[in-house]
Amino acid sequence: MARRTGLIDTAVEALRSRIGSGEWPVGTRIPPEPSLVELLGVGRNTVREAVQSLVHAGLLERRQGSGTYVLSSSEFAVTMGRQIADARQRDVVSVRRALEMEAARLAARRRTADDASELLAKRDARAAAYEGGDLDEMVASDLALHRAIVRTAGNPVLRSLYDNLIEAIGDNIRFNFVTDVHAADAHDSLIEAIVAGDPERAAAETSGYLSGLLEDG
């Protein structure tokens, strides 16, 4: 029994590692059971129990007739999501302001030429999504822009905190698109400040649009 438990634990860690590293991104389907047996070098029952363990943990989700999909990249994100599931939107905005102001400030100080190109491309993608009018695309492109700013900040702790709140942030962005008037160029001044290397202006731009949402709440 001890050996079997050890095999299951090892299989769980192997699966968790691939999820956490991004090898199997959130939203994607993991390999089918026969492939996992070959990949992990263990029996079918061990694979099933390892997968079930991560389903219970909230990292994986079984979909009838479709397969098993990555639901989250970390247990911490799942726990945080449960804790703030009923949080008021203005409370989420308040936390976003704290994290995103510092991210913008650091990004302006640390951006490279490649970072600047990525941010400008994501700014343009956001504008195109807005003009297209598809809500899902608007939310996805806006979130992608904010995540790129956080990555550019170069602070792994800040990035981890942001990524672990990503579901709540995405829901907040959707809520804001539905309830407020957003322009296609809403973040242009922020990106310009980061690309120009102006940390205080970048932080002020972030504070400006998020504080406006708080005033509306």
Written description of the protein model:
- The protein is mainly alpha-helical and 217 residues long.
- The chain contains eleven helices and two strands.
- The protein has helices spanning 2-20, 33-40, 44-57, 75-83, 89-110, 113-132, 135-153, 156-164, 166-179, 188-195, 199-216; strands at 60-63, 67-70.
- It has a two-stranded antiparallel sheet.
- A hairpin with a 3-residue loop joins strand 1 and strand 2 (67-70).
- Helix 2 packs across helix 3 (44-57) and helix 10 (188-195) packs antiparallel against helix 11 (199-216).
- The longest helix has 22 residues, at 89-110.
- The model has no long low-confidence stretch (mean pLDDT 87).
Task: Give a summary of the structure in a few sentences.
By secondary structure, the protein is mainly alpha-helical. Helix content is 74%, strand content 4%.
Helix count?
Answer: 11
Helix and strand sequence: HHHEEHHHHHHHH
Q: Give the overall form.
A: elongated
- Largest beta sheet: what is the strand line-up? 1-2
Hey, roughly how much beta strand do the residues contain? under 5%
Strand tally is 2
Class from helix and strand fractions: mainly alpha
Q: Biggest β-sheet: count, sense, barrel?
A: 2 strands, antiparallel
Q: What is the share of helical residues?
A: over 70%
Rg to the nearest angstrom? 20 Å
Tell me the quaternary state: single chain
What gap, in angstroms, lies between the N and C termini? 56 Å
**What is the average per-residue confidence, as pLDDT, rounded to a whole number?**
87
Question: Could you list the spans in which at least 5 consecutive residues all have pLDDT below 50?
Answer: none
